[in-house]
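Lab intake sheet, docking and co-folding queue.

SAMPLE TYPE: protein with bound small molecule
LIGAND NAME: magnesium ion
LIGAND FORMAT: SMILES
REQUESTED OUTPUT: full 3D complex as structure tokens
PRIORITY: normal
SUBMITTED BY: R.K., bench team

The fields below were copied directly from the construct record.
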Amino acid sequence: MIVTTEKLTKRYGDRAVVDEVSLSVRRGEVYGFLGPNGAGKTTTIRMLLGLVKPTGGTARVLGEAPGTPKALLRVGSLIEGPGFYPYLSGRDNLRVHAARRGLARSHVEAALEQVDLVGAAGQGFRRYSLGMKQRLGVAAALLGRPELLILDEPTNGLDPAGMADMRDLVRALTAQGQTVLLSSHLLGEVEEICDRVGVIANGRLVAESTVEQLRGDTVLLVRADPVEKAHVLIEGSSLHGDVLHVREADAASLVRTLVQADVDVREVRPLLRTLEEVFFEMTGAA
Amino acid sequence: MGSVMDTVMGSVMGTVKAELLRLWKWPATWVLTGVWLVMTLTFGYVFNYLALSGGTNTRDLSQQQLIGSMQPENAGAAVVRGLPMFGGAIVLVLAALAVGSGYGWGTWKTTLTAGPRRVSAMAGTLGALAVVVVVLVALTFVVDLGAAIAVASLEDWGWSLPGWSAVEAVGASLLIAAMWTAFGVFLGVATRGPALAVGLGLMWAVVAENLLRGVGSLLGPVESLTGVLPGGSAGNLAGAVGGSGAPGVLNDLSGTTAALFLLGYVVFFAGAATLLKVRRDLV
Ligand SMILES: Nc1ncnc2c1ncn2[C@@H]1O[C@H](COP(=O)(O)OP(=O)(O)OP(=O)(O)O)[C@@H](O)[C@H]1O
Ligand SMILES: [Mg+2]
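RESULT FIELD (auto-filled):
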């Protein structure tokens, strides 16, 4: 395990902003940390980096206590937007960061190349566009090839092409054996690249699984005539307008039942809920 | 144990290097340094020289005093004279800006997640600012000495280079500047921003202590207190090493007492800032 938390909790006053979160990130995977605005993603990540002290529970990062040099030197991070000196160029900002991390300057150019910022590296950070600032933040996280990357909403401010680049970059990183924990409030954006996801809402981890598991069992959509009669016949079905939704059913036996009862079956197909719908159900319910 | 020390020293050195790099390229460093050098030249030499050569001496100084203050051998006193109030205010502003801005820019977040412990990060910041202070004081001495030599040559005075007393004066200048720097660092950390830190610092250095000194002339206990406040201690040390005749310079305490108070303030401000930095969440 690269990251584990055990009932990790942060209270501000009497409000638990992060509430007994127990999650785990495995070596080499891309872990999507998902949740709507204000769910507690950034606060959890801050605790993993030692910026915020938990009020309860524990966390281990690469087997170490969060925020210690042993952990931090092996983690690259970008938390809630990049933090750089506005008057320095992108390159100088990375040089300053490399010095803090005890890394040689040669790492700077490699990181700039990875995020495609070599051309603008001499420009003042102040004059960067939102997307360029974000990419510089990712470059800082990449410096020195840390084992674990913690990226808090890395695609914030990126255009669709930039988002695609970011996804490619994350894929390339895992191909090199790096582990990535990335947060997002847009499921569709990370669905393709995440091996596993943790869903947080109102400070509580409401699910942690693979994307497929998260989608859950397939639901059958049945269009039949008369639909009310079919609804009565099939146990556990639910009526949605003029169609039925049936959970965990065998299509063949379902059709046989309906036909034998003289119900016309016009359509039976698996209803693929989008992850977005699942997400909405979960986080809305919590 | 040895390797633990090595690691700690290594990360402090890395942080000092990083901080020096960004302070060196920071326009504010140069603007404030420039303002200070212009001020020390103007008030230490330009006005005095004009008063001397134009005969318009309205500052209650005898010709002899004017000449004495501009002698190259008194360059050390010229440096220390300006530090208790104006020079101090400038290094305080520099330190408060350097530390306070990091909260708004988000650079503290980047710094504290880079690797070194928070204590090392603070030690690195304080170390880099110490380097800046040393360079600033050395630069002031060189500029003042240069101006003094220029005046002495123009006027054909017989002059000699500064002696031991200049070392004392420069040492006192360093201690005074270090105290104001630590004060600025403390304010920057405590208020978590540049604006309030600079505002409060200037209020204290330029206004509050002067007001208290005014009250002090009416109330005895307040008067003895003002002598040992940060600005008061700085003023007394400057007075004790020959830097008389400038705003904020006092002559109520012995040099040793004043120096010990200043040292105490340096330790207190730097320690309190570090403690706050280590203890508080960074959000
Ligand atoms: N220092 C603080 N004091 C009080 N409340 C806080 C503090 N920091 C965060 N919160 C609250 O904690 C909650 C979670 O915040 P957090 O930034 O972790 O959410 P998030 O999941 O990252 O949201 P987003 O997607 O908008 O970035 C929010 O309601 C926020 O108001
Ligand atoms: Mg967030």
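REVIEWER NOTE: The mean pLDDT of chain B is 91.
SIGN-OFF: pending second check by T.M.
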